[in-house]
Amino acid sequence: MRTIDHVLAAGTTGSGSSARTHKIWNPSTGEIQAEVALGDAALLDRAIAAAKQVQPGWAATNPQRRARVMFAYKQLIEENMQELAELLASEHGKVVDDAKGDVQRGLEVIEYACGIPQVMKGEYTQGAGPGIDVYSMRQPIGIGAGITPFNFPAMIPMWMFGMAIAAGNAFILKPSERDPSVPVRLAELFLEAGAPEGLLQVVHGDKELVDAILDHPDIAGVSFVGSSDIAHYVSKRGAEAGKRVQAMGGAKNHGIVMPDADLDMVVNDLAGAAFGSAGERCMALPVVVPVGEDTADRLREKLIPAINALRIGVSNDPDAHYGPVVTPEHKARIEGWIDTAEKEGAEVVIDGRGFSLQGHEKGFFVGPTLLDRVTTQMESYQEEIFGPVLQIVRAKDFEEAVRLPSEHQYGNGVAIFTRNGHAAREFAHRVNVGMVGINVPIPVPVSYHSFGGWKRSGFGDIDQYGTEGLRFWTKTKKVTQRWPDGGGDGSNAFVIPTMG
Ligand code: NAD
């Protein structure tokens, strides 16, 4: 059995790992294809010792030299795109084209990080007082750590380490133990790009290692993405240990469909956004909210044939719209939610339970599911399902359509489909959700903006990547200076200086 190992600075590889391992499935075949070594606190100590060796020199390297490593890395990722996407698809289950998107959206943050000399420039005020200048500079926080989910094993690690390392930090990545091979390759390619050993290390593990990261006094900042309960826990425990923490959680994104929307476009967008990647996206659109009964009926009529036409296949089937879900436990959980929805009174219009793919009967496939007449009291509405399940919640008017996502416990993304600019503008201003799409089903902001949800979709106050990411991975130092001209200016510090 192939064992996936940690990526540590030379001399530490493999050592300090606990004897525990975690099995890696091939979700398309239902077979175990590898195992991953699970690390412990001793392993983390070794990684941190190596990070401490290398980080000061890296921080002192001028930013254009650091950027050159990012440029070389960008090129290597592009050259290895196909290999990375196939590896990713084989462990995650998403189809290869979608896996390329996963790599690409991370790569875009690396591209942004290539501009680090520009974005890290500080501020300067000449003459803030008599003969006094004030300037501020951004300095790296030191050693950062990232704890990432299974569903974007390339993009989310790159969101974090791309920004953190370009800004002068060393980085310890603890990827999901369910699909760890791509994060390992990403770290290997980073070395190939010319990064010094120990700057980016990958440690595999589960809760034991996460706790060790959260408690470690030498880790200054932790970025987490995963489910909300764990995000909340990470946020509290990390803050308790005196670290800065950003922790993104789960989601239940709504797509509002106004009566004047282009329904053919909506159906096409919804099919991809609800069922792409088998619904295992935090920016998926698993809830559609048609406004008015007539809109709901027209939408449902168009949705049914579109959903029935979806092709489910193994992750390397080039014609498949989506592949299997990540583990057998997750398949059972999704089907359990469909059972719950049915018991709660939702109408199961298209039932994906018990789906089996011919020739791959052991794969973890779930058929596309459409539920209608879902209401806000239902647990299956309130909780995240994270599978290929689309729920229709009928709203009577625009006000109710604004209220539904605004009052939901999650506030990651939301979309509105309409031709009415005023309605769209009102909606974008009023809705209590962090990321809004206007006729855009998956509004993941580009790398030079920032990503982050609200409410239980995001704990901590700084978003991922862009200038927000830079803020997270750096601290500002403020310098107030004057230079004596030999005469003294007669000021004293018995009275708090006001600088006149
Ligand atoms: P998860 O919460 O199970 O795991 C995330 C990370 O936490 C993994 O690295 C895992 O090893 C670690 N972990 C698991 N259990 C832990 C515990 N008890 N204590 C400490 N650490 C623990 O999430 P997942 O299933 O890998 O990913 C799917 C979830 O992530 C969904 O809820 C999805 O919405 C969310 N997600 C959110 C965003 C976002 O930006 N808001 C992006 C992607 C995914």
TrEMBL record:
<dbReference type="Pfam" id="PF00171">
    <property type="entry name" value="Aldedh"/>
</dbReference>
<dbReference type="InterPro" id="IPR015590">
    <property type="entry name" value="Aldehyde_DH_dom"/>
</dbReference>
<keyword id="KW-0560">Oxidoreductase</keyword>
<dbReference type="GO" id="GO:0016491">
    <property type="term" value="F:oxidoreductase activity"/>
</dbReference>
<dbReference type="InterPro" id="IPR016161">
    <property type="entry name" value="Ald_DH/histidinol_DH"/>
</dbReference>
<dbReference type="InterPro" id="IPR016163">
    <property type="entry name" value="Ald_DH_C"/>
</dbReference>
<dbReference type="InterPro" id="IPR010061">
    <property type="entry name" value="MeMal-semiAld_DH"/>
</dbReference>
<feature type="domain" description="Aldehyde dehydrogenase">
    <location>
        <begin position="18"/>
        <end position="479"/>
    </location>
</feature>
<protein>
    <submittedName>
        <fullName>CoA-acylating methylmalonate-semialdehyde dehydrogenase</fullName>
        <ecNumber>1.2.1.-</ecNumber>
    </submittedName>
</protein>
<dbReference type="InterPro" id="IPR016162">
    <property type="entry name" value="Ald_DH_N"/>
</dbReference>
